[in-house]
Structure formats: C-alpha cells, structure tokens
Design a protein that fits this description.
This is GTP-binding protein. With 164 residues, this protein is an alpha+beta fold. The protein is built from 4 helices and 5 strands, in the order βαββββααα. The protein starts with 11 loop residues before the first strand and ends with a helix.
Length: 164
C-alpha cells in the first residue's frame, strides 16, 4: 500500500483472512504480549485499534482501526482504516466545520449586502481568506499523513501479523 501517493486522508484496506474471528483474537493477544512497548492496543468486540507506543508517538502518529466480520464459509472479512489520533481528528473536523460555517455565514451576508446595493468587499475578502484557510487545513493534513507514512507501514505490518 503506497501511503504517499494515495489522495485519501484516511487510507483504507480490505481483505479476507482464512482465520476465524476467534483465531484472529487469539493471534492478537499473542502479538499484544510481545509488542506491548512499541504499540498501543485496544479491542472491543470485533474491533481492534492499533496505535504507536507512547515513547514514539508524535502528534501526526497514525492509528489503525480494524473491523472483523464473519462470513458463512468460515472466512473473516477484515476492514482497516488508518487515521490520526482521535482527539486530533476531532479538532481537525471541528476546524473544518467552523471554517465552513463562517464561509456560509459570510456568503449570506455578502449576498444580502449585494441585494441591497451595499459594499460587500470585506465579506468577499473574508470568504477568500476562509477558502485559503480550508486549503491550508487540507495541506497540513496531507503533510501530517506523509510524516506518519512510516508508522502506518509499521501498523500495517503488525496488523498482517495478527490477521495472517
């Protein structure tokens, strides 16, 4: 999986495993005991979360969410999604909503002023600045994903130890 050329901010993968969910969970427990210092492990039901260990973690460090679904033929369908730390992701999304909401608000104000033949230059400048802020957020997210690509590969390798 090439994380550097992928346009998605949260890369995903899907695959089948010949193991059952119970076998994958048993493998997860074995890997967890040997890799507990380098990685962070959480699980709940058919979901597994893998993260970078506390001593190697940076603000751009990724996490991997793995979901396990059982098929009738005994195979397990594995879906994985990479993403940033959940707190960072929440802040990132909140900033997007704020920028988007302000853009819409200033768009309404600019349209209202234009309808009443008033000067709306300030509102258009603010909208342009908000558009640039949105683009800046996107490129910051891309840069952070690029910085975390090495750790994503490590998490993918760890996930393959658990699944395969």
């Amino acid at each position: 999986m090439d994380f550097d050329k992928n346009i998605k901010l949260r890369p995903k993968f899907e695959q089948f495993s010949p193991k059952t969910i119970d076998e994958i969970k048993l493998s997860y427990e074995k890997v967890k005991t040997f890799e507990s210092e380098d990685f962070k492990f959480k699980d709940a039901g058919n979901h597994i979360w893998l993260g970078v260990g506390l001593f190697r973690r940076e603000y751009w460090s990724p996490s991997l969410h793995i979901e396990l679904d059982m098929y009738e033929d005994g195979r397990t369908y594995v879906k994985g999604m990479f993403g940033p730390d959940p707190v960072l992701w929440f802040i990132f999304l909140a900033m997007h909503f704020i920028v988007g909401g302000l853009f819409i608000l200033f768009g309404i104000i600019a349209y209202s002023k234009w309808t009443f033949s008033q000067s709306n230059e300030f509102d258009l400048v603010v909208m342009f600045a908000l558009l640039n802020a949105w683009l800046l957020l996107y490129f910051i997210a891309r840069l952070n994903r690029k910085k975390g690509a090495t750790q994503m590969r490590e998490l993918l390798s760890l996930a393959n130890k658990i699944i395969a």
